[in-house]
Amino acid sequence: MARIGVLTCWCGENIARNVDVQSVAEQAAQLPGVRCSRVHKYMCSDPGQKLIRDTIAAERLDGVVIASCSPHMHLKTFRKAAEHASLNPYLVEMANIREHCSWVHPERSRATAKAVDLIRVAVAKVRHNRALEPIQVPVTRKVLVVGGGVAGIQAALDIADAGVPVVLVEREPSIGGKMAGLSETFPTLDCSQCILTPRMVEVAQHPNITLYTCSDVEQVEGYVGNFQVTIRKRARYIDIDKCTGCGQCWSVCPSKKTPSEFDYGLGARTAIYAPFPQAVPARPVIDRDACLRLTKGRCGVCVKKCQADAIRFEDQDELVREDIGAIIVATGYQLYEIGKPDDRGRIAGYGEYGYGRYPDVISSLQFERLVSASGPTGGEIRRPSDGTVPKTVVFLSCVGSRDNAKGLSYCSKICCMVNAKHTMLYKHKVHDGQAHVFYMDIRAGGKNYDEFVRRAIEQDGAHYHRGRVSKITQEDGRLIVRGVDTLAGEPLTIAADLVVLAAAMRPATGVEELAQKVNVSYDEFGFLCESHPKLRPVETNAAGVFVCGACQGPKDIPESVTQASAAAGKVLMMFSRDRLYREPEIAHVQESACAGCFSCRRGCPYHAIDPAEIRDRQGQLVRRVARVNPGLCMGCGTCVALCLSKSIDLEGFSEQQVYAMVESLR
Amino acid sequence: MLQPLRETCRRLLQDGTVQVVIGYGQAVRAVEPYPVFITDPDDVGQLVWNEQCRTNLVKYLLRKEIRVLGKPAIVVKGCDERAIVVLEQESQIDRSQIVVIGVACDGMAEPRCEVCDAHQPRFADHTIGHATNVAQPAERRYAALCEFLEQPPSDRMAYWKAELERCVKCYACRQACPLCYCERCIVEKNRPTCLDTSATLKGNFAWHIVRAFHLASRCVGCDQCSRVCPEGIDLRLVNLSMARASEASFGHRSGTDPQAELVLGNYSQQDQEHFIR
């Protein structure tokens, strides 16, 4: 005989406005198996939770239905309350009479009737609930951080400083990411490299950090606390233990024409090169497509020059396996490909700005290199075409961003601040120059951000024009920028020497492939999805995988660093116990009925199903059946839907429960 | 044809490659041959091959009482072997533990044989005889279905009501189907009962719709279910309909390509989503 308690919440006015809570409670009391029915103004409040605990104890309940908001909101809260009253938390169910009822049904009588039905269904379900115990899994105390930009560096150092080993994987030859190429940072104008490179060196020297550069994550197996990660160390052709980083090799390399990736093509580099002077590790790498020895079999000047005998032309890719407990993805961003379709041919636009055709139309990251002391011009602002100092520079906001027609509806967030910074840096170096900015809106939300933009306009005299640019043409070595000033209400044409396009932020290439390896979902733009936008901003729906930095959405340095530390904190919290506790609401295979067709295994998005062999006492194989790995299963139910013989059931959402729910409405 | 078939089987049994041959034997009274399970090389004379060998024998590979006889060799037509391909894809058989003897077939005087494009077996270990496979356009292969679909929906519903009214739920369709291999069929699941097991119109609709879903993208079109139905219900139409959907939406023809990924449980970026609204 069931002893179920129904506790209905007013949620202040949220539910009570459209649902007659008192009547609902009275009707609920009549449902089969219901022992008592109570109401409270705010069930999630402290007195509300006390009511739950007291009712469970006083009425000796063996099942509870809380009729209130979405289980996403408060299921954990109420289950915890039940646990305090010594009731197994998995005997608590929720009827969502807010999002599914009062918020969407204005008609009071019908909303009330639906609320009763929702409770009826939940009561029918809870009668078949079973007491469950959390699943315990062991945990490997080691973290994989993917991406060595500022976010990855911050996360790695925070975790390593707490005494936990970290494996940091970076695709490029050096860590540092996009920030290493910036000149100065807003809103303080402090030198980007001056603040970043000490952190990079700290990573290299930290006893708890294993750094893999020129490396990719090849494969991720296992589950939270127990991942097995395969890392592909691409051939570097340098023995980085022997190499001293003296630089003799690249000073003699005859292949000097490759555009420098670090300078975004504004300068050239040799085939054997270190990306930038402060690179970590401070070791060169050989570009296998540019090296004459590797492409044509001749040359080898660097080998003769190298006194450390560190050059290895026979170097091969190497696969390394690491046991990992948690993964932090910090793969960062790239700029929107202006005028060119992206790697999937989806997003293209702004051919009218002539980027790629006119050498003096550059992107904001290229401008960073032009003003950087370590850049191709040594920090002097000289335009790429003829090397003269530009006297008029036009900066364009929102190139790609906030433009549905071009495929990116979002705001890239940093460009307004970047443009303001660029106008200031320009003015500080070219005193008689004039900066113009075309903008849609100025979005300078952040500590000292708006003051910074005002300074650019008021002290450094940047001309801001609210409006967009329709076309850029080249005439007599100058760029004619045709736009409109919507505040003045007239067309505006500016003859400029240099045009800088603040292109949109997009997730780095390859992030979708990585996301598929670690089972993290991503949005239509390729940004990784956090578990909850407000309350779980660095967690993902894949247990043990965390995100931080611009791979999750456009953000600036302070935000990336904050998020990185948050992710590090979450990982350390996870590692604070010897074992991990996971929700027991997972799938189970009824092995006696399983036909072993393994369509569940093919369909499982978490690779949580493996074949298992059933043997008799003599050790003879009887059958092969599917078995769920409780450490991996997320309880999504895909396998349940795929199983033709209905041999899989979901704990907490069993067939019996679902049928009872449907039957209760007859 | 018959002599090489018997010789092949005798050799396989004699040299111990297999312990049992699953083939067609001559019935005493009936015209239609019946399945024989030959374990002695001297008994290969029981094997026959004629225009009545319609039955798909693949189901017997799964039967426990046959499995205990040892490693089998099986006589199949080009159409039947598609079921072996699917059974292997669905982990039901170990192909290396089965010897497949494919017999070229010019048709068994059934309507489906007119649009057959698998007269010559393609995946058999031993092939007897020669036939030519002629590719058949989809509109020919699904002609029977297309003709049926020309009727208005109300007529079709009336047709199915009249047909399924007769079903006695003997489950012969299930027993004969080479792809119905579950240890426990869902109609036997009773905690909770998944579908109406009564032999009423409602229960019969439930059974045949679920059966169609379970065979969607899997059915190889051997028509064994229609052939064994004591009430003569033309289940072929249902199977054709699901096969056409699978081919049109996923380019998948069940059992024609051992390397193909199965439709159920696989996801590809190229999957059509036009039916999701």
Description:
The complex is a heterodimer of chains A (666) and B (277). With 666 residues, chain A is an alpha/beta fold. Chain A folds into 5 domains: 4-126, 3-Layer(aba) Sandwich (Rossmann fold); 143-234 and 317-332 and 508-574, FAD/NAD(P)-binding domain (3-Layer(bba) Sandwich); 248-305, no CATH class; 338-506, FAD/NAD(P)-binding domain; 587-650, Alpha-Beta Plaits (2-Layer Sandwich). Chain A is built from 19 helices and 34 strands. In chain A, helix 7 (150-161) packs across helix 8 and helix 13 runs parallel beside helix 14. The model of chain A has no long low-confidence stretch (mean pLDDT 94). The longest helix of chain B is centred in the C-terminal third of the chain and has 15 residues, at 201-215. Chain B has helices at 2-14, 64-67, 81-89, 111-114, 138-141, 143-149, 153-165, 172-176, 201-215, 224-228, 236-250; strands spanning 20-25, 34-38, 72-76, 99-103, 126-128. Helix content of chain B is 34%, strand content 9%.
Helices and strands in order:
The complex is a heterodimer of chains A (666) and B (277).
Chain A: E1 4-9, H1 13-16, H2 21-29, E2 34-40, H3 46-59, E3 63-68, H4 71-84, E4 92-96, H5 98-102, H6 108-126, E5 135-138, E6 143-146, H7 150-161, E7 166-169, E8 184-185, E9 190-191, H8 192-205, E10 209-212, E11 215-223, E12 226-233, H9 248-252, E13 258-259, E14 268-269, E15 272-273, E16 285-286, H10 292-296, H11 301-305, E17 318-324, E18 326-329, E19 333-335, E20 361-363, H12 364-371, E21 392-399, H13 415-429, E22 434-439, H14 449-458, E23 463-466, E24 469-475, E25 478-485, E26 490-496, E27 498-503, E28 505-507, H15 511-518, E29 545-547, H16 557-574, E30 579-582, E31 587-589, H17 599-603, E32 609-615, E33 621-628, H18 638-642, E34 648-650, H19 655-663
Parallel strand pairs in A: 1-2, 1-3, 3-4, 6-7, 6-18, 7-10, 18-29, 20-27, 21-22, 21-27, 22-23
Antiparallel strand pairs in A: 5-30, 8-9, 11-12, 12-17, 13-14, 15-16, 19-28, 24-25, 25-26, 31-34, 32-33
Helix pairs in contact in A: 2-6, 3-4, 6-19, 7-8, 7-16, 12-13, 13-14
Chain B: H1 2-14, E1 20-25, E2 34-38, H2 64-67, E3 72-76, H3 81-89, E4 99-103, H4 111-114, E5 126-128, H5 138-141, H6 143-149, H7 153-165, H8 172-176, H9 201-215, H10 224-228, H11 236-250
Parallel strand pairs in B: 1-3, 3-4, 4-5
Antiparallel strand pairs in B: 1-2
